[in-house]
Amino acid sequence: MAARPSDRIQRGMSKRDLGSSAPGRRELLAYSAFFGPAFLARQGLAGTLAPAAQASSPSDPVRGMKKSINLWAFPYPDKWSLRECFQIAADAGFDAVEPNFNLEGEFSAESSDDEIRAVKRMADEAGIAISGVCSFLFWPYSMTHPDAGRRAKGIELASRMAEAAALLGTDNLLVVPGAVYAPWLEDPVPVSNDVCERYAKQAVRELIPAAERAGVSINIENIFANGFLFSPQEVAAFVDGFGSDTVKVHFDTGNIMQYQFPEHWIPILGKRIKNIHLKEWDKRTQEFNLHTFRTLLDGTTNWPAVIAALEGIGYDGYLTFEYFHPHQHYPEALIYQTSDALDRMLRRTA
């Protein structure tokens, strides 16, 4: 007569008894990362985490993709000038830099066309390209803000950003279409989901003519923590809904890593992806804020899988490291470390 389940429990089940129903190595590693190995050991599971063989990877360098870095990783303008930032990025081996459009300063809403052209000349003299235009202004001047004046100002600023991108010689403009809630703002004003979607669509429709005149793509960024466009399917539907080749995707690997995985998003978004931010995230960190992002390779992102997914869709654009905390001491170390990490991710090192 077959043993009853209760009998087996009382006698104890061996690991062989568990068979294929036992958790696999990757699942156990995830438990270990979250709860810690000591906790796992107390559950009698740690012994199943035997060292795994090193997975083989292609040896040929990745073709087409180019290295870029956002200026937030530099101590600009506190310690370095814009010219110094461009030169150090070039010296570190980057192909391009992504500047941030501000309210005031060398590259800002108060800059004339000639002043923006001067920024382009500085980059040319340093031997570095401009990979795209980014801006924090999409938060204080959200295009889905409850205040109509704020929304109008946001659209006005975004239109000027499109013109500025063209003057810099890039056809990439990162656009945050809206937010239900932005927890990193001092006094965030929540917006209901349906209103956020309506305002966001209206704003992008208003931006399309300006972007078309400038020859610049409106690249919608996925942000997850802003409560809007939670999945790749939602992003794809939002972008496709405009029926315009001018509206594309600026895909950010780190902005979804708290609960999802970039290698899953990339095949779904496919050719819609026009530009990319690389941000590192560590899934052992549960609370989200702008300090939880890490330097490249110091996290849990499966970079070989991400690069393979990008190769799978034929992506040949920029990979831009975005980081908000330049090093207080020896800030050039972060720039060179990032360049080296990208070389390894792109299989450019021996």
Structure description:
- The protein is an alpha/beta fold.
- The chain has one domain (83-345): TIM Barrel (Alpha-Beta Barrel).
- The protein is built from twelve helices and eight strands.
- The protein has helices at residues 5-11, 15-18, 25-35, 37-42, 82-91, 113-126, 148-168, 193-214, 232-240, 262-269, 303-312, 332-345, and strands at residues 66-70, 96-98, 129-130, 172-175, 217-221, 247-252, 273-278, 318-321.
- Strands 3-2-1-8-7-6-5-4 form an eight-stranded parallel sheet.
- The radius of gyration is 23 Å and the shape is globular.
- The termini are far apart.
- Mean pLDDT is 88; it is low at 3-18 and 49-56.
Any chance you could write out the topology, listing elements then pairs?
Blueprint: H1 5-11, H2 15-18, H3 25-35, H4 37-42, E1 66-70, H5 82-91, E2 96-98, H6 113-126, E3 129-130, H7 148-168, E4 172-175, H8 193-214, E5 217-221, H9 232-240, E6 247-252, H10 262-269, E7 273-278, H11 303-312, E8 318-321, H12 332-345
Helix pairs in contact: 5-6, 7-8, 9-10, 10-11
Percent strand: 5-15%
Could you state the order of secondary-structure elements as H and E? HHHHEHEHEHEHEHEHEHEH
How many beta-strand segments? 8
Report the helical percentage: 25-40%
In CATH, what is the class? Answer: Alpha Beta
The total domain count is: 1
CATH homologous superfamily assignment: Divalent-metal-dependent TIM barrel enzymes
Radius of gyration: 23 Å
And the CATH topology?
Answer: TIM Barrel
| Tally of DSSP helical segments | 12
Which residues sit in consecutive blocks of at least 5 with pLDDT less than 50?
A: 3-18, 49-56
Largest sheet geometry: 8 strands, parallel
This entry's quaternary arrangement is single chain
Shape: globular
What is the CATH-assigned architecture? Alpha-Beta Barrel
Mean pLDDT figure: 88
**What structural class do helix, strand and pairing data support?**
alpha/beta
Determine the N-to-C terminus distance: 62 Å
Strand order of the largest sheet: 3-2-1-8-7-6-5-4
